[in-house]
Specification:
Shape: globular
Structural class: mainly beta
Order of helices and strands: EEEEEEEHEEE
Number of helices: 1
Number of strands: 10
Strand order of the largest sheet: 5-6-7-9
Radius of gyration: 15 Å
Length: 119
């Protein structure tokens, strides 16, 4: 995942699952809910988290593909009520229907977002 423009701590995908943690701030304004933080990408109203695919050949990460885990699909009222005491979990397949690394904008049903309260 990139933090700003740089991919941080690239890891190989082993098996069918991978876990990554990315803190984001839920900000409630008069215009609605917004998401901010070093892992959040995109303009207001079109925020997302990037999941980058590539390789590291010793001279730095070389990007091949990336998936945008879209945040605009989240329920604003639910996110606002859980802003300080919840963890947002996203579950998705890391490959597409052809068996290639998942890329492009990812929204339900490709990803299942769940709020875990009190975490």
């Amino acid at each position: 995942m990139p933090r700003g423009r740089d991919v941080v701590s690239p890891r190989p995908v082993v098996g069918e699952a991978m876990r990554f943690d990315a803190a984001l701030d839920v900000v409630v304004t008069s215009a609605g809910v917004d998401y901010r933080g070093p892992w959040v990408q995109g303009p207001r109203g079109d925020r997302f988290l990037h999941l980058c695919w590539g390789h590291d050949e010793g001279e730095g990460f070389v990007l091949q593909r990336r998936a945008k885990l879209m945040l605009d699909v989240l329920d604003p009222a639910e996110m606002a009520s859980a802003a300080s005491d919840a963890t947002l979990e996203g579950r998705l397949s890391l490959v597409d229907a052809r068996g290639e690394p998942l890329c492009a904008a990812v929204r339900p049903p490709q990803i299942r977002w769940t709020l875990v309260r009190g975490s």
